Amino acid sequence: MYEYIKGTIEYVCPEYIVVENNGIGYQVMAPNPFVFRQGKDFKVYTYQHVREDIMALYGFQSIEEKTLFKKLLNVSGIGPKGALAILAFGEPSQVIQAIENENEVFLTKFPGVGKKTARQMILDLKGKLQDVVPDYFPNLFNEEQFTKSDAASLAFEEAMLALKALGYSDKELKKISAGLQKEQLSTDEYIKAALKKLMR
C-alpha cells in the first residue's frame, strides 16, 4: 500500500522507528533501527504486512533491502521477524552469495534459521535474486558466469513448469530440484534428468 514514507525520524528504539509525515507518526519496524538517526529526514521504503491478528509497517533504507525482505517472506518457515533478523545480521550481498553458493553453514547462523529453513531458502531463491536486485551485488558474478547462470535458471524454471503441466506436484519436484539446480542444462535436458529421478 505504501511504497515509502518521507519524513523526520522522531523516535528510535531497538524494535522500531517513528517517522513523522504531515503530523502523523508512523511506527515502522526495521532490521536495524539505529541506522536511522533521530531528528533527521529520511526516505524510508516500506512494506505493509497484514494478517488476521496484526497489521504492521516494515521499513528499509533501500528498495533493494525491501525487495530481499519480500523474497524472504515467500520462503516457507520465514516470517517478518525472521526476515528482519537476516537483514539485520548480514549484509544483503553476503546473504545472496550464501544462497547462490548453497552455503547452509552461513545461513544457519541467523536466528531461527535451522538446516531445513536454510535448505528451503536455497531451493526457493537460488538463481532468482540476481534478477530482482541486479545493481545490489554487481561484483558477485562476472558477466560470463551470470549469463550461464541466468540461462540455466530460466531453463530450470521452464522445465519445472513443464513437469507441473504433466501433473507432478510441488512436493515431488522439490525433492529432486536441489540436485538438478547444481547442473547447467537446457530445458529439455532438465526435463529428461528430472523424469529419471522421478521414476526411481
TrEMBL record:
Residues 70-89, 105-124 form the Helix-hairpin-helix DNA-binding motif class domain. It comes from the Bacteria. Signal peptide: none annotated. It holds the Pfam family RuvA_N. GO terms for molecular function: DNA helicase activity; hydrolase activity. CDD domains: UBA_RuvA_C. InterPro entries: DNA_helicase_Holl-junc_RuvA_I, Hlx-hairpin-Hlx_DNA-bd_motif, NA-bd_OB-fold, RuvA, RuvA_2-like, RuvA_C, RuvA_C_sf. It is found in: Cytoplasm. Residues 155-200 are annotated as: Domain III. Keywords: Cytoplasm, DNA damage, DNA recombination, DNA repair, DNA-binding, Hydrolase. Homotetramer. Forms an RuvA(8)-RuvB(12)-Holliday junction (HJ) complex. HJ DNA is sandwiched between 2 RuvA tetramers; dsDNA enters through RuvA and exits via RuvB. An RuvB hexamer assembles on each DNA strand where it exits the tetramer. Each RuvB hexamer is contacted by two RuvA subunits (via domain III) on 2 adjacent RuvB subunits; this complex drives branch migration. In the full resolvosome a probable DNA-RuvA(4)-RuvB(12)-RuvC(2) complex forms which resolves the HJ. Has three domains with a flexible linker between the domains II and III and assumes an 'L' shape. Domain III is highly mobile and contacts RuvB. The RuvA-RuvB-RuvC complex processes Holliday junction (HJ) DNA during genetic recombination and DNA repair, while the RuvA-RuvB complex plays an important role in the rescue of blocked DNA replication forks via replication fork reversal (RFR). RuvA specifically binds to HJ cruciform DNA, conferring on it an open structure. The RuvB hexamer acts as an ATP-dependent pump, pulling dsDNA into and through the RuvAB complex. HJ branch migration allows RuvC to scan DNA until it finds its consensus sequence, where it cleaves and resolves the cruciform DNA. Belongs to the RuvA family. This is Holliday junction branch migration complex subunit RuvA. It comes from Heyndrickxia acidicola.
